[in-house]
Q: What sequence folds into this?
């Protein structure tokens, strides 16, 4: 059963990495730096380079430290995936999205020395941080893990039981 789950994990990771890299390739080769293409009144493509991690945090750390940090995070989330019960498929799906997104951004950092960002939600007097598909996968994956944890916690609280989450 575990080998079937590993194939599922690898398929989700591969989908996330490939889709992220394809979009980044078209953004990087088809748009000028800081070019904005409005798609909706509140949403645009806007090509920028991020020297840090989410929301440009840790931008002063340098590539080597950020690459090492990303590898540590990927390793830790992989461990969480491995140690989570197979019945917790929502969390496992979320972990796979996080790993795929992290690998997508890691590829950018290794190849370019920065991460390519391009999604911009904005209003005339406000704008959200520019992000990419890999960031979206990481965020959705984290949300799925939190949501399932909340429902498991609620269920355990009602029943008085407590699952360890181990296989």
A:
């Amino acid at each position: 059963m575990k080998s079937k789950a590993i194939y599922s994990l690898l398929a989700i990771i591969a989908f996330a990495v490939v889709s992220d890299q394809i979009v980044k390739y078209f953004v990087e080769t088809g748009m000028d730096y800081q070019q904005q293409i409005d798609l909706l009144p509140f949403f645009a493509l806007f090509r920028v380079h991020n020297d840090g991690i989410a929301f440009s945090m840790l931008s002063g750390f340098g590539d080597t430290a950020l690459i090492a940090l990303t590898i540590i995070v990927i390793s830790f989330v992989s461990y969480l995936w491995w140690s989570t019960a197979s019945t917790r498929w929502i969390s496992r799906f979320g972990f796979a999205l996080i790993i795929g997104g992290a690998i997508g951004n890691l590829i950018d950092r290794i190849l370019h020395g920065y991460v390519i960002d391009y999604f911009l939600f904005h209003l005339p007097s406000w704008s959200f941080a520019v992000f990419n598909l890999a960031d979206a996968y990481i965020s959705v994956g984290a949300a799925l893990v939190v949501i399932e944890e909340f429902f498991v916690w609620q269920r355990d609280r009602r029943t008085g039981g407590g699952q360890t989450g181990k296989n």
About this structure: The beta strands are 36-40, 43-50, 115-123, 126-127. Helices lie at 2-30, 63-83, 89-112, 133-159. The two ends are 11 Å apart (CA to CA).
